[in-house]
Amino acid sequence: MKEAEAEARLGLQEGGIPIGSILVRGGQVVGRGHNQRVQKGSAILHGEMDCLMNAGRQKSYRDTVLYSTLCPCFMCAGTIVQFKIPRVVVGEAVNFPGAPDFLRSQGVAVVILNQPGLIRMMADFIRAQPELWNEDIAE
Q: Minimal CA–CA distance to 51: which of 29, 23, 87?
């Protein structure tokens, strides 16, 4: 989760939304990314999507674990299900509940850590930039 947090902090430093993600296989990071909707003017480049894009083509994702600082939204959850990623570890689901029930209903193991530092980082961002946050979650 520390690697995903580093990605989130990088996104924040770049003027974006602090959400980071990494993809791990056998203890090795095979992909990393962070929310880049602001930086790249993208409608869909959430942290998980950037991570998977940066991981490149994989023959299979069935032996990977996705770590994300914030619980994946339905768009990212759909991609996780499509790629058959079996396990997602979530840094926090307090500021945004995401779609853990959907993931679980599709057989994905979801572990929610609710780490205080990640909760605080996201809450501080939402308080400082509510318009940008609402845009990210389509509110």
A: 23
Query: 73-92, pLDDT tens digit by residue?
Result: 999 999 999 999 999 999 99
Report the half-sphere exposure of 134 (CA within 13 A, side-chain side). Answer: 6
User: Which tokens sit at 10?
Assistant: 């990088």
Angle, alpha carbons 74-75-77 (nearest 5°): 60
Q: How far apart, in whole angstroms, are the C-alpha atoms of residue 95 and residue 98?
A: 9
Residue of 3, 7, 14, 48 with catalytic role: 48
The answer to whether residues 34 and 20 touch, using CB atoms and an 8 Å cutoff, is: yes
Active site residue 48: yes
pTM comes to: 0.96
Q: Are 111 and 88 in contact (CB under 8 A)?
A: yes
Residues 6 or more apart in contact with residue 119 via CB below 8 angstroms: 92, 94, 95
Q: Which residues contact 61 (CB under 8 A, 6 or more apart)?
A: 23, 83, 84, 85
In angstroms, the CA 19 to CA 28 distance is 20
Q: Name the one residue in this structure whose structure tokens are 């995401």.
A: 98
